[in-house]
Design brief:
Blueprint (H helix, E strand, L loop, with lengths): L11 E5 L3 H7 L4 H21 L4 E8 L7 H24 L2 E6 L7 H13 L6 E9 L1 H14 L7 H6 L11 E4 L18 E4 L9 H13 L17
The structure holds 3-methylbut-3-enyl trihydrogen diphosphate (2 copies) and magnesium ion.
Family: Belongs to the UPP synthase family.
GO molecular function: ditrans,polycis-polyprenyl diphosphate synthase [(2E,6E)-farnesyl diphosphate specific] activity; magnesium ion binding
EC number: 2.5.1.-
Length: 241
C-alpha cells in the first residue's frame, strides 16, 4: 500500500502464516503441498511489504511446538527452508532486504544453521527491509533465555530494558501490526513481549490464498485504528470522542 500517510503505516508487521495444511486438504492433497504454496506466497509478500514501506517484517516460520508434528512433515519443512535460503532468497536480498533469524537456531540441523549464517552475513548491510524469520521460535523460551542470561551476568534485579536488551533481536522495535491467517484467533507463543501494544488483525483467508490485496486490506484496517497506548489521545477523559 504505497499511498498511505507515513504515520498511518506500520513500521513492524509480524505474520502468523497459518492454514497451509487445511488449504491442501481442501484440494484433496497432502499437507506438504500447502507448505510449498505457502512458501511461494511468503516470497511474494516479502517483496510487496518491502515495496510498501514496511521496515521490519517478522514471519513465523517454525515454532518450538512444531516439533510435535510427524517427522516427515518437519523434514519437508526443513528441506523447503534450505531450498529458499540457498536460492530464492538471493533475489530478495539483491533488492535491499536484510535477512535475520530469531529463535533457537542453535538447535536446528547444521545445514540450516550454516545457510542462515551465510545469508545473514551476505545481507547484513542492506537496509530497505529487515526480514526476520522466526525459526524454532517460542516466545516463552525467548523470555526465559533473556532472564537466564541476566542471571548468569550476576543481575539481582532486572528492568524492562534489561529484558528488551537480551531478547534474540534487541534492536528490533515492537510489533505495530500482527496478522494471523486461517481464522484461528490465538497467538501460539509468538512475540509475547513485542506485541504488548500491537494491533491485531485476523482473517479467515488461508495462508496459501493470501496475496498482495489481502495484505493491503490489513494495512488499510490498521490505518483506521486509533492507537492510544493507554493514554487519551483522540478522546476526552471519559473515553468519549
Ligand atoms: C502453517 O500452516 C505453517 C506452519 C506451521 C509451518 P499449518 O501447517 O499450521 O496449517 P494448518 O493450520 O494445519 O492448516
Ligand atoms: C503457528 O501455527 C506457527 C507457525 C505459523 C509457524 P500453528 O498451526 O503451529 O499453531 P496452532 O497449533 O494452531 O496454535
Ligand atoms: Mg496451523
Amino acid at each position: 500500500m504505497k499511498d498511505l500517510a507515513k504515520e498511518k503505516q506500520p513500521k513492524h508487521v509480524a505474520i502468523i502464516m497459518d492454514g497451509n495444511g487445511r488449504w491442501a486438504k481442501k484440494l484433496g492433497k497432502k499437507r506438504i503441498f500447502g507448505h510449498e504454496k505457502g512458501a511461494e506466497v511468503a516470497e511474494k509478500i516479502i517483496e510487496y511489504a518491502s515495496d510498501s514501506g514496511v521496515r521490519y517484517l517478522t514471519l513465523y516460520t517454525f515454532s518450538t511446538e512444531n516439533w510435535k508434528r510427524p517427522e516427515e512433515e518437519v523434514n519437508f519443512l526443513f528441506n523447503l527452508f534450505i531450498k529458499y535460503l540457498e536460492s530464492r532468497m538471493e533475489k530478495i536480498i539483491s533488492k535491499g532486504v536484510r535477512m535475520r533469524f530469531s529463535g533457537r537456531i542453535d538447535k536446528m540441523p547444521e545445514d540450516i544453521q550454516k545457510a542462515c549464517k551465510r545469508i545473514e552475513e551476505k545481507s547484513k548491510n542492506n537496509s530497505k527491509l529487515d526480514l526476520i524469520m522466526a525459526l524454532n521460535y517460542g516466545s516463552r523460551q525467548e523470555i526465559l533465555d533473556a532472564v537466564n542470561k541476566l542471571i548468569s551476568s550476576g543481575k539481582k534485579e532486572i528492568t524492562k530494558k534489561d529484558i528488551q536488551n537480551n531478547l534474540y533481536l534487541p534492536d528490533v522495535p515492537d510489533v505495530d501490526l500482527l496478522i494471523r491467517t486461517s481464522g484461528e484467533k490465538r497467538i501460539s507463543n509468538f512475540l509475547l513481549w513485542q506485541i504488548a501494544y500491537a494491533e491485531l488483525y485476523f482473517t479467515e483467508v488461508l495462508w496459501p490464498d493470501f496475496d498482495e490485496k489481502e495484505f493491503d486490506k490489513a494495512l488499510l484496517d490498521y490505518a483506521k485504528r486509533e492507537r492510544r497506548f493507554g493514554g487519551l489521545t483522540g478522546s476526552d477523559e471519559f473515553g468519549n470522542k
